[in-house]
Amino acid sequence: CYLTGAAKLVVVVAIFLLTFYVISQVFEIKMDANLGHIFARSALDAAARSTKPPRYKCGISKACPEKHFAFKMSSGAANVVGPKICVEDNVLMSGVKNNVGRGINVALVNGKTGELLDTKFFDMWGGDVAPLIEFLKSIQDGTIVLMATYDDGATKLNEEARKLIAELGSTSITNLGFRDNWVFCGGKGIKTKSPFEQHIKNNKDTNKYEGWPEVVEMEGCIPQKQD
């Protein structure tokens, strides 16, 4: 009986050890498989990150050089979607921010630091041009001025207002007409005409929207003002 009991104990212990060994082997295999999957996933993620195109400030197509401010802007879409102005990855004006309106939308930026100074919009259909003229005259030298139309930005413009905007570097302001789409980036005290300007005429034969031309977009790098 003793030998039988001892034999049974040996068998039980042997089965336990074998079971433990099998389980441990399976566990290690599973661990190896999981680790392999994790490493493979990490390698794929790293490859995806390396092939994904980099994102630049304001979503522009390439990085700006040192001592330049990145900007991107668009005019309004008909009388439905407002314009958008972004500088150095900061959205200064947009429909989402609820600070745009019919007419000419203006954002003022410090030419040395890139910081926002002010935003305003002026209704050039049902409003008065006098507040726009007063605002333009108050802009300090060295200020970056970004403008975008929404709906109609020209009907109430007069010669004085157009001259003040032209002095900021605009060339298209003299021809800006009813419901034209226009975006412009210039500066107070600029000595030359600005290279940052886009203008599309309102033309019933070519308009993308009924009564309005397509949206105009523009991006670039504004040189930082140096002392």
From TrEMBL:
One of its GO terms (molecular function) is carbohydrate binding. GO terms for cellular component: extracellular region. The keyword Cytoplasm does not apply. The chain crosses the membrane at residues 6-23. Keywords: Disulfide bond, Lectin, Membrane, Secreted, Signal, Transmembrane, Transmembrane helix. This is FAM3C protein. Belongs to the FAM3 family. Residues 102-189 form the ILEI/PANDER domain. InterPro entries: FAM3 (IPR039220), ILEI/PANDER_dom (IPR039477), ILEI_FAM3C (IPR039475). It comes from the Eukaryota. It comes from Origma solitaria. It holds the Pfam family ILEI. It is found in: Secreted.
